[in-house]
Amino acid sequence: MSTIRIRNLHKSYGATPVLRGVDLDVAPGEVVCVIGPSGSGKSTLLACLNGLEPFESGEVIVDGQHIGWGPERGGARLRVPERAMTLARRRIGIVFQAFNLFPHMTALGNVMEAPVQVLRRPRAEAEATARALLDRVGLGHKMLAYPADLSGGQQQRVAIARALAMQPAVMLFDEVTSALDPELVGEVLAVMRKLAEEGMTMLVVTHEMGFARDVADRVVFMDGGLVVEQGSPAEVLGNPREPRTRAFLGRVLRPDSISA
Amino acid sequence: MDFEWDLFVESLPTLAAGAVTTAQLAIVSIIIGLLIGLVGGLARVSGLAALNGVALFYVTLLRGVPLLVTMLFLYYGLPSLGLLLEAKAVAILALSLTNGAYVTEIIRAGIQSIDRGQMRAARSLGMGWGLAMRRIVLPQALRRVLPPIGNEAITLLKNTALVSVIAIPDLLRAGTDIMTWQANTFSPFAGVALMYLAMTLPLVWLVARLESRWRVA
């Protein structure tokens, strides 16, 4: 069974359709990169996957839980109650472009917060796990630093550790390097690469074509609220079938941007 | 000028007794006002139309009516509804309801000033709305609105001077009493003014202390 299953997902902001019938599956342990021009609905797709954005119709199942709308019964679907969505989100890690660390807590506090408050883990246990996670993202020396004292790259690595602390079934990455200074992008991608190698299921919205080429099991190209093309990185990035994919890659793939 | 040093010193003990009443009224009303403001502010951002409506009605009403009128209205109006409260209770009710209306709007604004990404991040970690509000949004919002809330507390302290119209022996009332006996305005009132000023200082100090302790690192 897929970790993520999306069928015919429709979402609009007011009268503007953003997602126009998206189908997508992510298998356990798979790393899928979603690329496409801005405004193609990539980030909205992620927000729908953990129920942060409501959507009009379609089926979304993540880690066996229906998101947004329940199973179809007699041609109709009922909205999933908020309480069930809150439970489902425990298993869906997401990392945002803007980090969104809690500024009134240390790096350690940020990572411990949800395990202690949501999962009711004992503080000592949660702290041990949080320390190990911060070590894993290379921030063992910044445990007690506040977000304001960390660089963008460090903040984003704390955010990754914070999401991992919930032991999610899947990690969603929403253009997580787009707000970073160029020299800080590498450290965040390195953490994500390690995570992928360790077998984490990942859905990564990104503009980093080098990362997509090297790390993704599958690349999905979205445009105009639809999945236009998908396949192995070699197929989609190296030999795209669709004219729209070719046009997009022609715009973003300059020789220097492909070095990973 | 009819300032007499001896009279000034003599009036201090009487004034101090009035000041105790003023301080009691102020402290109790500030605490109740804060609690009302917290509940009201949360109601305003709850996203539930009914709660928001009730809170907005309350704020509009209490902010739109002068405190003195509210106090007199409750003092003379409640008994005709069969509700007999002593003057101090009426004073606390009027002070804290009015203060709570202002604090409601301050806390609403504070919550709304926190980046929406904070709530999204908290919810994405499996926190419910209430938990996310309590652990993530409110601590940041309250820190930010501490200065205006301090202002409201000082305003309330000074507004307690209005309770003398419903026959509560507060600081101002003690001053006017002395003025009547002694036929001297300036000496007792200098004491009254100084004592109000002195009572605002602990509030100023408390706000400054909380601000520095809660500073985001």
Automatic annotation (TrEMBL), chain A:
<keyword id="KW-1003">Cell membrane</keyword>
<keyword id="KW-0067">ATP-binding</keyword>
<feature type="domain" description="ABC transporter">
    <location>
        <begin position="4"/>
        <end position="249"/>
    </location>
</feature>
<comment type="similarity">
    <text>Belongs to the ABC transporter superfamily.</text>
</comment>
<protein>
    <submittedName>
        <fullName>Amino acid ABC transporter ATP-binding protein</fullName>
    </submittedName>
</protein>
<dbReference type="InterPro" id="IPR050086">
    <property type="entry name" value="MetN_ABC_transporter-like"/>
</dbReference>
<dbReference type="InterPro" id="IPR003593">
    <property type="entry name" value="AAA+_ATPase"/>
</dbReference>
<dbReference type="InterPro" id="IPR003439">
    <property type="entry name" value="ABC_transporter-like_ATP-bd"/>
</dbReference>
<dbReference type="InterPro" id="IPR017871">
    <property type="entry name" value="ABC_transporter-like_CS"/>
</dbReference>
<keyword id="KW-0472">Membrane</keyword>
<keyword id="KW-0813">Transport</keyword>
<keyword id="KW-0547">Nucleotide-binding</keyword>
<dbReference type="Pfam" id="PF00005">
    <property type="entry name" value="ABC_tran"/>
</dbReference>
<dbReference type="GO" id="GO:0005524">
    <property type="term" value="F:ATP binding"/>
</dbReference>
<dbReference type="InterPro" id="IPR030679">
    <property type="entry name" value="ABC_ATPase_HisP-typ"/>
</dbReference>
From TrEMBL, chain B:
<keyword id="KW-0472">Membrane</keyword>
<comment type="function">
    <text>Part of the binding-protein-dependent transport system for glutamine; probably responsible for the translocation of the substrate across the membrane.</text>
</comment>
<feature type="transmembrane region" description="Helical">
    <location>
        <begin position="189"/>
        <end position="208"/>
    </location>
</feature>
<dbReference type="InterPro" id="IPR043429">
    <property type="entry name" value="ArtM/GltK/GlnP/TcyL/YhdX-like"/>
</dbReference>
<keyword id="KW-1133">Transmembrane helix</keyword>
<keyword id="KW-0029">Amino-acid transport</keyword>
<protein>
    <submittedName>
        <fullName>Amino acid ABC transporter permease</fullName>
    </submittedName>
</protein>
<dbReference type="Pfam" id="PF00528">
    <property type="entry name" value="BPD_transp_1"/>
</dbReference>
<keyword id="KW-0813">Transport</keyword>
<feature type="domain" description="ABC transmembrane type-1">
    <location>
        <begin position="19"/>
        <end position="207"/>
    </location>
</feature>
<comment type="similarity">
    <text>Belongs to the binding-protein-dependent transport system permease family. HisMQ subfamily.</text>
</comment>
<feature type="transmembrane region" description="Helical">
    <location>
        <begin position="55"/>
        <end position="78"/>
    </location>
</feature>
<dbReference type="InterPro" id="IPR000515">
    <property type="entry name" value="MetI-like"/>
</dbReference>
<keyword id="KW-0812">Transmembrane</keyword>
<keyword id="KW-1003">Cell membrane</keyword>
<dbReference type="InterPro" id="IPR010065">
    <property type="entry name" value="AA_ABC_transptr_permease_3TM"/>
</dbReference>
<feature type="transmembrane region" description="Helical">
    <location>
        <begin position="15"/>
        <end position="43"/>
    </location>
</feature>
